[in-house]
Write the structure tokens for this entry.
Amino acid sequence: MNIVFLARSLDYGGAERQLVALAGGLHAKGHRVTVLLFYPGGPLAAELLVRGVPVRDLGKGHRWDVLGFLWRLVRSVRAAAPDIVHAYLPVPNILAVLLWSCFPSAKVVWGVRASNMDLTRYDRLSRWTYRLEAKLAAKADLIIANSHAGVDVLRRRGIPLQRVQVVPNGIDTERFAPDAAARERQRGQWGVGPDVKLIGLVARLDPMKDHPTFLRATALLATQRDDVRFVCVGDGPADYRRQLLALAAELGVASLLSWRGAVADTPAVYNALDLVTLASYGEGFPNVVGEAMACGQPCVVTDVGDAARVVGDCGKVVPPRDPSALVAGWQAVLNLSDQDRAGLGAKARERIVKEYRCQHLIDTSEALLSRLLPSTSPTSSPA
């Protein structure tokens, strides 16, 4: 198959990480793969280039740089002459359908990643884009959702479910694995002593990730124990970051909390933590949960998207937007003995290796894409 992937960028993010895994995996299986990006590559692009996957920057300067960008997009897709255009996330999904007449022989595949979204927290253009995506969904040949919870949201949005298939995210269990040396190194860099219980939220600074609930929970837990510290890992808009810093100061937890931007060595981050948490009120398949579990970390997650399905009985699940419930989940894990917590972490890794390995994402996606092209067949059966 000849596949063109279309995405905004390859900055750090769950959807972007999955695109890299899938594009690289399909390339390794002998398919012709090209990745087209709206904006300059981003740090994850290097992983594809090292593997020999062409990554082309379409040179979009800013949000309103439209006409020149669209011309470069059409020209690049035509030059690649793909069998399939596989878009990721709303704007690329919309453009793949709207520009279909420029490459009518190609099948259009959408990647839909999130589940519930509070549209009131986003700007007018984002809300319009979200609604337009639903109106155009019938034009896509295949819609791949990364979560079962996301399918229910698609139904409520009016998206035709006969075009939808679920392919859970895949976790690279060789890269994300327990590493005692990485734990010691990362905690040393952060100045965290061995007796400190370190709770981490690894997520971009986005309203859906609900950092305010996390911060309110940190304030509650800090009144109950004096051996805890907290870290937030991820980037986001400067204005929103300032709001969160102000809230942390207002709650009196600024001194207990470290803010880190996006980090390349996320396996070291997960290993450095004693507990990984998800505070989101909207998710599809939360990558960070699968990655943390693969590193042997127990997780406390909000009951959103497929988080509870991923965690199973290897962590705690609590209602979203409830700081007290989040604290109760944290305490349930932190109060385990070292031996029991290590056993829970080992069980978590075993679950990810068995149910959510990266090869399953690649093989299942290959089979679904090949069905769109009657003359092709996958090189292997889905796992």
